[in-house]
Structures are given as C-alpha cells and as structure tokens.
Sequence to fold (662 residues):
Amino acid sequence: MTNKSDNIIEVKHIKISFAEKTVIKDLSFEVKRGEIFGLLGSNGSGKTTTIRALLGLYRQDKGELLINGKAFEPNDNIRIGYLPEERGLYKKENVFDVMMYFARLKNLENPKEWIMNYLKRVGLEEFAKTKINKLSQGMQQKVQLGVCVMNDPELLILDEPTKGFDPVNRRLLMEIIEEQHKKGCTIIMITHYMDEVERLCDNILLLKNGVARAQGPVKDVRKKFDNKSLDQIFVDIYGEEDHE
Amino acid sequence: MSRIKEVIRFEVVRSLKKPSFWIAAVLIPVGFALYIGFAALVGYNAGEAMEAGTNTTDLKLGYYDESEYLKQTKFVNADEKEQTLEAQESKDAGIAAVKDKKIDVFYYIGKDFAESKKVEIYTKPDNASITDDYSAPIRNLLATTAATNVDAIDFAVITNAVDYEMTTFDAKDNHEIDASEKVKEIIGPGIALVCFYILMVVLGNRLTAAMVEEKENRISELLLTSIKPVDFIIGKIISLMIVGIIQLIVLVVPMLILYKLGQNGNVFPDWLQISFDFVSIAQYMLMLIISYFLFTAMSVIIGVISPTAKDANSYSGVMAIMVILPIFFINVFMPNGTSTLTYVLSYFPPSAPIALMLRGVFGNLPTWEFWLGLADIAVFGLLAARLATYIYCKNAIEFTAKINFKKLFGTPRKSWKK
Fold:
C-alpha cells in the first residue's frame, strides 16, 4: 500500500475523448515525489493529451488527475515548470521583458537577478535586450527552458524537451534537469530518446492506444521484456502498429 | 488579482512601446495641427478672403469709365484705408500704363455698360496667381454708385443685404429653439461618433491580433500553468481597454488644445467657432467608453475562436460591417425618418453604438433612450466578455483548427470556473 503523501501525481482511470475519437481509454499511474518519470509512447499515443489534462488544459471524460491530491489550478501553491511540446515566446518582445513577465506571473522573488544570472549561465547575457525573433532557434530554446525552471519548480514537466535541440543545448538541458532533480524536484519527461530514459528515469510508463502497455521501474520493465534494451522494447511494442 | 495586474502591465507597456501605436495615435492630431499651422501661416480665412479679394493697399489703381456711370472714385479697401482710382485718358492708355508698370490695376467700363454689365480688369502682377482677385475696389465703387441711384430698401433687397432672422418653435412644447444650443447638443455625440470610428479603424485589427498572438506563437501552454485562463483573458480585456483609452486621450487632448489655440488665433471659419456643453460631452464620452468595451469584447471573441490572425481578420470584417451598418441607413436616424429599423439598429448590440450616436447627432435621441441604449451596450459588452472568457477557457490551446462549437459548449473543467 503506497502512502498517499509520497505521490505528487495520481492519475486514476481517466478517459479522454475528442469528438468521436477516444485518445485515452483507461489510464492510471502514480508519480512519486522526487523521482524522474518517463512517459513514453509513439506519436499520437496520448502522452501530451495526458499531460495537458493533468495541467487542466484538457478536460477528462472520466477519472481523476491529481497533483498534490487535487486537480491542478495555476494559482495553487505548488511550483510547476512546464516545457510544452508546442512552445514559443512573444517574438516581438525582447528576452528580458518576456522572462520578466513570466517571472512576475510565477511570483519570483528578485526576478531581475535570477534572469541575469540565468542568461549569463547560458551565454545570452548580451542578448537580454534582443527581440526573441532575432535569436536563433537554439537561443530561443534556452530562454524557454529558463522560463520553465525559473520558479525552482517542485514538479517539472518536460514534453519532448530535447526536440530540435543541438548537442550543446541538449547537454545544457540535461545538466539543468539533473540539477533540478538533485534539489528534490519531481520530473516527468516525455521523450523518444531511450538513452535519456535509461540514464535519467526511475519509473516509466509505455502508453499505447490510450492504455498503459507497461509501467514501473526501468529495470522491471526491461525484465518483463526479456531484458531487452528500451530501444528494442519500444520497437517491439510500437513496431506492431506498422504491421496492423 | 496580482497575476491579472501583471498581464495588464505587460500588455499595456508593450503596446505603448510600439512605434505603430504612436504613429496611429498622433497621425490625426498632427494632421489637425498641420491644418491650423498652415492656416495661421498664410493668414488664410476663406470667408474673409472671398469677400475682400486681393489686398490693394500697396497698389496703384486706374480706371476709364466711358459710360460715366461711376459717381465717385474713393473707396475703403480691405485694410480699411481710403484709396482712390486714378482716371486714365482712354482704354488703350490705361492698358499701356499697366504694361509699363505705371499703374498696377486698370478698370475699364465700356460705353455699353448698361447692356453688357461688364467691367474689364487689366493687371500685370510680378507673380501671377489664379487666386488674385482685383475686382473688390470696382465692385465697391459700383455698389456705392448704385446705392445713390435707388431707394435704400430696394438696394438692400436687390443686393441681398436684408437680414433674415428665423425663430423655430419646438414641435412638442412650443419653446423657442436656440440654434446655437442645437449646435452645442450635436458636439457630444459628434465627438463620440468620430472617436469611436477612429478607435475602430486604428485598433480594430490590433484587438483581434492581440488575442491570437498567444496561439500563433504557441505561448498559451507556457502561460496557462502560471495563470488561470479566466484571469488571463480578464487581464487582456482590461489592458486592451486601457490601450484604447490612452489612444483616445492621445487623440483628443492635443486636438482640444490645438482647437483652443486655433480658436484664440481666430484661424477657423465661423462654423468651427463652437461653445461646448460639457454635460452632453461627458454623457457621450461614457457611451464611447462603454461602446469601445463592447467592441473590445466582440473582438476578443473573434480572437479566441480563431486559430490565426488571418482567420480572425475574416471574422473582423463581418463584425465591422455590423458595427457600421447604421451609416448605410442614415436617414432612419433623422427626426422625420424614424421607423422600426431605427429601433432595431439602436438596440442590436453591434450596431447600437453608432446608431445611438447618430440619433444624438440628429437630435433624435430622448434622454431615456440614451440611458436605455447605454445599458443595452453595457449588458451585451459584459455578456460578450463573459462568452469570450468561456470560449478561451475551452479553446486556449487549439492552435490549428477552427472552433468546434459542439465541443465548445460541453462542461468546462471545474478548476476554470470562476
């Protein structure tokens, strides 16, 4: 029996549909406080839908999605960092103003100091007054990442965080994820890179056609699939789709 | 509440930082200032100029009157100085004197003046201009001569110098209608109408564009983990209202100052010399603000149902037509044109602001209807804002597809209910 307070997230028998299409049929899982949780699945398997429902952006037809024991509201005291799959910034505003706006929305103390330290760390100090649309894609990603972690989140949700990142930014992202984790942050990661999952995740959930195909600690899942690599397991599960 | 404040601060500050905002805001006052500046510079007063003609103070004037009609040759010019026409020996001598620059203007009245009723004017200015008119002195002298030939009353009638003073009684209570009071009454709705139209033109597209910006740039998801959709949309609406009011202040205040300066400098034609009824102006400014609120809320609805600015623009066009619909039926707002359509357009929310303002301009809006219309606009503005909020809560992260109304009117997530 799991102690409830150990779980920062509880998803209980949720069903989510759009018009005639049921994206999530019956999904339940828990995420323990302080762990790195990998939410895995092929494109269209319902990962992003689940996260959006968890954050109140979509409405579930059935079941419960709880963060710290209740449905999420942005004004709750929990500090959340979310790097969505579809991410962008105010393109015509400068880096500092955009980060300051989010910092104020997230009630950050000493936002100016934090922003300048972060920009210095990621090599964007001299671009503080540059408009977002004048930055390269990689630079914009660094700003998005800054916005995501600026409130020292207790729960960090990263939806395909390394998508489009060059190796340098990818390493920076991994450093920041590990840093946040060391501070006790719980991390949910949606990714297609199994090396990242094997290296970082404590527990994983493999989602297929709106139901959990496998879940648990990485080593247990691998054991269930004859100790194959996660890459191979992924191919075994989702490769079937191509032949169906 | 603090998050709403942050949205308002961010949106207002970045709007005010845009050069396009100031260009649009100052274009009209600058145009007005240019007009006043130009008018003051050239000392141009159309009415007086037409009456006085070209100033002749520094000119030597000559004449030859073969008909012997003129009784005198002294007249008072536009500078109120006495001038005399010098007699020339003949028509040819007069023309030659002009060509030789001995005189500047030569007037020739032929022997057959009674039949031809024609005066020939010859001049040779250094810089010839089609606006130069040297007929005033001879007209003046001919009129003086005519006045000595006929009865003073006949002369006044013939020269249209009789004053016609009109008194109009009100159709309802027979009280005397003061024309200047009527003009005063028009100022309030007139200013409101012009300002509303300018706000629509200047800010219309910006309102919808501001609403789709988060979707187009994929910012919504990042935002909505930090702020409730309902708080965000309220912040957006309030900030758009503030931006509009600032635009209005930037537009109206310099124009009022320039108007006052122009009035003091006496550079306006008579019809622009107006006294103000500040109660009426205040009432219609209130109507303007509430109308702008309704317009903002409708624009926000368009913004939240559209995935892109391009989609929003097509909806905005339809809305703009509904708003300016009364202009196409302007006759029905006049006192003698009132019909069912007058009331339909006056209380149909999108067209109500312009319809009511037009009725105010034509003096066809009773006080009770003014307040009823204002309440109508305010209530529908609030409903539109509420609907916009509701739709945004359901549609905030719909990045590509147009709105699905079937999906829209399902039950919202509990946490998003205010």
Observations:
- The mean pLDDT of chain A is 86.
- Residues 87-151 of chain A form one domain.
